[in-house]
Amino acid sequence: MTAPASSAEALFEELWRQYIAIGPHAQAIRGLLGGAGVKNDHIALRGLNWPGLGIDALATSFLAYGYTEGGTYTFPEKKLVARHFDPPRPELPKVFISELETEALSEVSRAILERRFRTDAYPLGLGRGLPPSAKLQAEYEQLLEESEYAAWLYAFGFVVNHFTVAVHELDGAPSLEEVNQRLLGAGYALNESGGQIKGRPEEGLEQSSTLAGPVIVAFGDGEREVPGVFYEFARRHPVHGQLFGGFVTANANRIFESTDVRR
Ligand code: NI
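Above: the input record for the complex with nickel (II) ion. Below: its predicted structure, written as tokens.
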């Protein structure tokens, strides 16, 4: 972001613009499900566990608008930790931010991330990533071998990884199954990892997501097609009489795979 947004709403609008530039299918689906009336349940951002590049740094913009700390989540298999932040007003989305435990990577991969991200040569932070000249396809491939997450972050940087439709607030209160069927009928592919629907009503949260659409990314040594961003669908349910407000680690673990390279 070049300048601080004048309001939380303006910040999310700017992040949405960046997001649909990478994943125009999200805007088309939003139109299909009700357009401007579709409420956003949460956004998700990815980072690295280094000063200025992790959860704390990425949360700063949201804390400034009154967001507060929610839950903490760990994903040992993917070498990730995450925290969520609750909005000061119910009309604003939750924010889910994860960071990669860089010490869990090989020296080769860590050195690539160190060299590219721990530099003052270009501005990094919310809404920003590596310039094309600072990306090489061989480095992307090296990261991909070890961490789909690291490779995605290398390609796109700190843009929103997904926005999420609050299915429980859609007109007509459709089930998640009904929403999925509409999307499949319209020709969109869904993340099938662990089944189309992750989570059960009694856990408080059911989720599904599209698969990230392919995007042409400019690297210093040419262009390459890589998975971009995806759109998520969340249906929250009451638990002990209150709408569940957190996240479910087992679901999120599968949702992360929506940006995996299909091979
Ligand atoms: Ni999500």
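Notes for the reader.
The helical segments are 8-22, 24-32, 55-63, 107-117, 137-146, 148-156, 176-185, 249-255.
The chain has a mean pLDDT of 95.
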